[in-house]
Amino acid sequence: MMSNVIHAKEAEFNELIQKEELVLVDFFATWCGPCKMLAPEIEELADEFEGKAKILKVDVDQEQALAMRYGVQSIPTLIVFKNGVQTEKRLGYQPYPKLKEMLNR
Q1: Is the pLDDT reported for residue 23 higher than 90?
Q2: Residues 102, 38: contact at Cβ < 8 Å?
């Protein structure tokens, strides 16, 4: 099965947050325990919100400029964008209901 989660590099990230109405970004690293815990929930979220929201993952080790731009100091950091504007930011592991709540607000 194809994943609906987009692993975004900077150019794609910039384009998607401008173009899409609703975007949730998971700033993560491959070595981060809580990020690994969050991964299946992010996948599930992307499936549930297919066609309604874009779910991006940004590897902070590969995309340091993006991480710095959004002040990501601890991971995972989750940021919601609506029409290109950051509306919410949460640090650390979030259970599935919280992720949904962030998007449904």
Answers
A1: yes
A2: no
